[in-house]
Amino acid sequence: FDTRVSRHIGSHLNLESVFDDIVDQLQRALGGAWRSFLEYVASCDPSRSLHISKMDSTITTPSVVSNDALAVVIDTIFLANFLRQSRQGSASRLRELFADLHMLGVAMPEVPPLRQAQYLRAWAKARGRPTLQDRSKVGKKDSEKLAQLDAVLLTASVELRLPEVIASADEVAESTANEAISAAFPEVSPKPVDFSTTGKAPGTAGPPAARVILEDKPQLSPVIFEAAVSCIHHHDTFPDGIRERLYGILNEEYGLTKDQLQKLAIGATQNIDGRRLSDSTLLSMEQREKARLRQYQADTHKDTMHLLVSPLVASPLDKGNKAKYTHIPSPQFRPPFASAFSSVDMTRSLPDLRGFTPTVSDGREPFKVPLSTGPLTMDPELKKLRSTGFFIKMPALKGGP
User: Fold this and answer.
1) Exposed end of the chain (fewer CB within 10 Å): N or C?
2) CB 172 within 8 A of CB 242
3) Is pLDDT above 70 for 287?
4) What value does the mean pLDDT take over residues 312-325?
5) How far apart are CA 26 and CA 1, in angstroms?
C-alpha cells in the first residue's frame, strides 16, 4: 500500500484516515471482485473456524470449533514479548498499555489464570532438593515450559496488582509479628542518636511543599514472593527481560521486609541453573586442595596452616563482633590453698602439700601414706589408691654349683 498520510515525527496521526486510505486502495486493486470479497469477509467469524482433514471421509461434515484457545495463545505471546522489553523505556508499562487499549476500544488480552504459579513453584522445588514424586514431575518435557508460562503470568499479575498476588490480612499480620520478633533481637548494634536534632522523622521538616510523601505500598503474598524469587534465581531458564522487570517491580512498587529484600538481591546476583556437583565430589575436591597446600608448605617452607583450618562462621547474634579465638580466656577460679593442677586426674594421685587441708571438701578421702611398699595405682572398682606390692624385698639368689 502507498503511504498517503503524513507520518513524520511530530505530526498528528488520524487512525480513521489511515484505515480509509487502506480500504480505498484495496477496493481499487480488487476491482469487480470487491463485492465477492465483502461477502466472504461477512461470512467469517473470528471466534470460530472450520476444521477439516484429508483423513476424513468425503461424506463427513466438517466440524466448526471455537478459536478461544488460539486467541489465548496469541494474546499470551503478545504479552510475553511486551514484558520482555525494558521497563525504563517509553510506553513500556503494562498498566499504561491496558489503559491505551481501553481508550481505543480494543479488547483486553486474555491469558490463562495464574493459580498461584503452581507449575513454577513445583518446577523450582524439583530442581532444588526434589523428592521421588518431584523427580517424576520435573522429568516431563512440558514442566519447564509450564514454569516459563507461569513466569510471564506472574510478572503481569504483579505489575497489574491483581488481588491474587496481594497478601491477605492474616498474612500481613503474621509478617508484622515476625518482623517485630526480628526487631527485638537485632543483628547489628544500635546506631548512635544525635541529640542535637529536633527529633522529627526524616521528611517531616521544612515547608509542606518540600516534605516527603510516604506511600503505603502493598505487600506480596508469601507464596507469590517465593515463586518470584525462584524465577529471578534461575538466570538460564527465564529471559533476562522478564527477570529484570519482575525485580524492578518488586523493589519499586511493593513493601518488602528486610529478609525479603536480601533474598531478592541474592536471587538477582546468583545463578543456580546448571548441573550441581555431588557431596562426594565436593569433599574430594576439598581433600585434594588440602593435600596440595600441605605439599606446598613442605616444598617452600611457607606456613599454610591458616588455609587448612575450618572456616569460622559466627552466629547472627555475634555478627560484627571479634572472633572468639582472639579473646584470651580468663583463668578458672581456684580456692585458696588448693592444688594448682586443673585436671582432676592429677589431683587424685598427688598429695596436698599446701600446709593444711582446704576447707572446701570435694567429696574424696584425704591422702594417706600407705604402709605397704610399691607404686600407688587407682583401683577402678573401689576408686581408691592402693599398692600393688610389686617392690617387695625378695631373698638373695643363690649361685649355681
Assistant:
1) C
2) no
3) yes
4) 73
5) 8
